[in-house]
Amino acid sequence: MDPKYEPPQTLTRSKCSACYKQYKKNEHLIEHMIVSYHSVHDPACTVCKKHCKTLESVREHLSGPLAKADCMKVFVERGCILCLCIFDSPDVLKVHEQNCRLSPAPPIGFGGTTLLEKSTQSEMEITSLSGESCCNQGLQVVAMDCEMVAVGSVGSDACARVCLIDEDENVLFHSYVKPELPVKDYRYEITGITEAHFQDGLSLKRVRAKIKEILYDAESWKARRILVGHSLDNDLLCLRLTYPEHLKRDTAIYPPLMKTNLVSHSLKDLTRTYLGYEIQTGTHDPFEDCVAVMRLYKRMRGQVHQNEDFSPSSGIPHSINGFVINGFDAYDTNDLMKMSPDALLQISRPKYMCWCLDSKQASDTDLDSSSSVASLDKILDGFSLSGE
């Protein structure tokens, strides 16, 4: 008698609920989840809901050479090429695109004279942060950009022009900055700066004091503003300023805005790709760059993500002293092995702080960690490139 036929067993795979990768063993899925930092804040395809590391990866998934056919078909018909959202109909998409594609910021100046033309106007202070212009539900936001020249025998970067704006694109401060060392290269093709711009410029020490007045609380001398920029650390270094990490928002290193290989995009590329207009077509204007980074920040902050439970009862804090905590640290291996892929995704946390959380922060957020920053700035106050 023939032995009883037994059909081959179907191999059960553990599938990641975020990126849809499959694993033979559940422990391999858990290892993947721990190192991937998937979360509800991941950029994701609005058609199939697949999570990606960056928005550029989502764009390639929707319209690249190896795009998923079903998703690409929907995206071509009803998808916005800027924000990558899918809409109910082409008509709704057309209405959305009128608001999603922005126009370049007009040049600033007095009486129709732009800053580039009015070189003798070395300092501008037009508005303050005391009004209702900033986000009512969170911390006030300031964007900053600097233009550099090369100074000294080795051509070190030095801040030659700086601009700060508020969330409504009002100029808070603008000034040309007198270099402390002889200028080796004005980089005129990029900066548009000549020696004449420095005649009525401010000293670096005075510029730093002005910026601190904007960023710090006058009474407690604690940092009370979210500071937005592109390659922000470079600007702060040239200004010889420091600022709390948890209050910096840098479009050059914000993971969703980076390339697929996690290399930074230029601000020019980011503005074209996500805002729909061109900047830096001639000499660089710090006001124009400030507006671009502020708009990028607001677009990222305005993304709607599922709320996460960061309450003490959840046992899963988002961060401790600024360091991101992964939700898996609150569970042992046996508990994780019993969880479904959806449950694993639910407790997973991103490796970075999503900017959408800024709109949920209370205005009385504890910022005591900035006290050490103020102390470090006092040390830098006494430092001079000229050795004086």
Strand-helix topology:
Layout: E1 14-15, E2 22-23, H1 26-36, H2 55-63, H3 69-78, H4 90-100, E3 109-110, E4 113-114, E5 123-124, E6 140-151, E7 156-166, E8 171-176, E9 183-185, H5 188-191, H6 204-215, E10 225-229, H7 232-239, E11 248-250, H8 267-274, H9 286-301, E12 319-320, E13 323-324, H10 333-337, H11 341-347, H12 371-381
Helix pairs in contact: 8-9
Overview of the structural elements:
One of its GO terms (biological process) is rRNA processing. This is RNA exonuclease 4. Its main location: nucleus. InterPro entries: REX4_DEDDh_dom, REXO1/3/4-like, Ribonucl_H, RNaseH-like_sf, RNaseH_sf, Znf_C2H2_type. The protein has helices spanning 26-36, 55-63, 69-78, 90-100, 188-191, 204-215, 232-239, 267-274, 286-301, 333-337, 341-347, 371-381, and strands spanning 14-15, 22-23, 109-110, 113-114, 123-124, 140-151, 156-166, 171-176, 183-185, 225-229, 248-250, 319-320, 323-324. Residues 110-122, 126-138, 310-317, 362-376 and 382-388 have low confidence and may be disordered. Strand 3 (109-110) and strand 4 (113-114) form a beta hairpin. It has 388 residues and is α+β, with helices and mostly antiparallel strands. Helix 8 (267-274) crosses helix 9. Helices cover 29% and strands 14% of the residues.
